[in-house]
């Protein structure tokens, strides 16, 4: 029996990305995510992501459900139909998501769920008797590309460059949310996105960094303990914003509710709070 979710062809995926480009100011992270999906097909990473639409309704209402399955399963979804009718129907009827036990990570993560659909998705998961391991709200902060390209920054003690593959283990080891295959996930993303590191000029040590998330936007931002409060995190963010702007994207990042320090940092750099979204972790138990 055919599944309700129909995979988009490469051409369809490019058309969907163009649809979301028209909404890039209110949904910058979904525009960048779909551009990553398109890029993955062009550089021969066919298994990085699968993008489906319930009964191909994307042509009408932009509804898509994407699966990033390897090294920890992520699900990213959206619709321009605020009722979420096709979105919820697709999730409720599909047989593609089985929440099987996975040595890579103990949960499937619904990533960046819009507040319009969050209550219905949470209700559906509870009705299907899935175990919810976590359910967190974050605020999206954005710096438009026009402002980001104006950034000029230099520092006599450090320099900024793309994070090297050999440094990804450092990034992963200091990430508080790491899991068994998170380093492999970072390596996959490094083929599709940029990660920037702040390095000491004296010995080329990596001391601060920001990497891109699955959405192609700012993800993990960290600074080694002894180098905190010296402006290096801000330097990393400024350079990431400029890098994304040069690629045609507004820069955004998510901040957990109550993380006042990150809010102050982004606000000081000119970021504005845009909207909220949710992360829902579902246990892989079957």
From TrEMBL:
Signal peptide: none
SUPFAM superfamilies in the record: Acyl-CoA N-acyltransferases (Nat)
Superkingdom classification of source: Eukaryota
Protein known as: N-acetyltransferase domain-containing protein
Lineage: Eukaryota, Metazoa, Ecdysozoa, Arthropoda, Hexapoda
Occurrences of domain DUF5645 (ranges): 4-103
GO molecular function annotation: acyltransferase activity, transferring groups other than amino-acyl groups
Protein's organism: Ceutorhynchus assimilis
Coiled-coil residue windows: none
Domain GCN5-related N-acetyltransferase Rv2170-like: 196-279
